[in-house]
């Protein structure tokens, strides 16, 4: 946002970035109206870029109509949206830029109290719409490390046993100690199951909580589970059952094969 010239000789500039914001049509209308509060007779420009063309209007509904007429090919799949509002004297201004990954909010004004209060109000609203301060890409890195760790640990236990022996030796000892065999099988099943199901549920959760920009309809609120489709909820129950059965069968087969 271009820094406005304040007649008072000083200005407060604030900027915050949010991720995973889920914004539907009513959410956008409400947030834009809130952002313009406290700006007397604001000069408002709501815009989007479609291909190589930028469209802008004074209201979201007028912008939607203009895009439908000028770029009907993008349909409901808008990739970006922005709001710019300022006073004619440019003593107060707000800019909000939204894309498929993040929402950036900038507030400037010679009135420090108004600037901090305004960005706090927008932040509170976005937090109620799923906003977080860190990029989900960091969560992906943690998830991949967890997958590799638990799958690697399960493979190590399966091949080497609990004390460095081969699985054949471990099975020989297990003939006289079923307790050791049960512990080993439990650890193998647990590590493989967690290493498989943890990323599965993370993918479902990320899908439900991902950033969304929808200028035509509203987006449901509630828990991430409630936002999954019926098919996804069925899969969330059925996949763990199938995974446990498969992993248990594989471990039993490995024990029978290498333990003879």
- Round the Cα radius of gyration to an integer and report it: 27 Å
Alpha-beta content class:
alpha+beta
Oligomer: single chain
The first-to-last residue Cα distance is 73 Å
Poorly predicted segments: none
Count of helical stretches: 7
- Biggest sheet character: 6 strands, antiparallel
Mean pLDDT, to the nearest integer, reads 76
Q: Helix and strand string, N-terminal first? A: EEHEEHEEEHHHHEH
- Can you list the strand order of the major beta sheet? 1-7-6-5-3-4
Helix content: 40-55%
Could you characterize what this model shows?
The model has no long low-confidence stretch (mean pLDDT 76). The strands form 2 sheets. The chain has a 6-stranded antiparallel beta sheet with strand order 1-7-6-5-3-4, with helices on one face. Helix 4 packs antiparallel against helix 6 (178-209), helix 5 crosses helix 6 and helix 6 (178-209) packs antiparallel against helix 7 (230-258). It is built from 7 helices and 8 strands. It is of the alpha+beta class and 260 residues long.
